[in-house]
Design a protein that fits this description.
The protein is mainly α. It is built from five helices and three strands, in the order αββαααβα. A three-stranded antiparallel β-sheet has the order 1-2-3. α2 crosses α5.
Length: about 180
Amino acid sequence: GIYLESVVLGGGQERGLRSGTEAVPLAYSFGVALTETQEMKENESNRLRLLRDYCKDELAKVIEGITFYGVWEKKQEGGSRKHDEMKRLPNNINCRIPGISSEEMIIRLDAKGFAVSHKSACSSQVEDGSYVIRALGTSEEESKENIRITLGRSTTKSDIENLVQSIKEIRDTYAK
């Protein structure tokens, strides 16, 4: 009982609602692209997970008192990993660097060519610390000293090494 108006006029296919020949090669190609993307996603997730863990380990070596937030995988006896991968993104690190505000660190890293963030874009206009970090039981001051590092497809091990060195230099120079 509902009248629908045709979106493409012409030969009357699809009961006169959408004329035209189905693009079977395009539909097939789209299916192939989805399959390839799924395979690439798994490989890329593993690559990013390794880089993320490398970054975390390197930051822990050079920044005294650094705190990492979120669930982190733990190596079990024999070197195998406990599979907690589903509990955190493979390309994300959120950490507190004591003694320097998030804003200061972000500005200084930006000047060195790195883009990091402090909290979600939807709350970036509010000048207090991260409410998510505060919800984890930290103080207001601690919630203003965290940064979020996000890795991407173009991120390399060399990028991580440069980022870690830059964070160390900034922290050593500008910390309270």
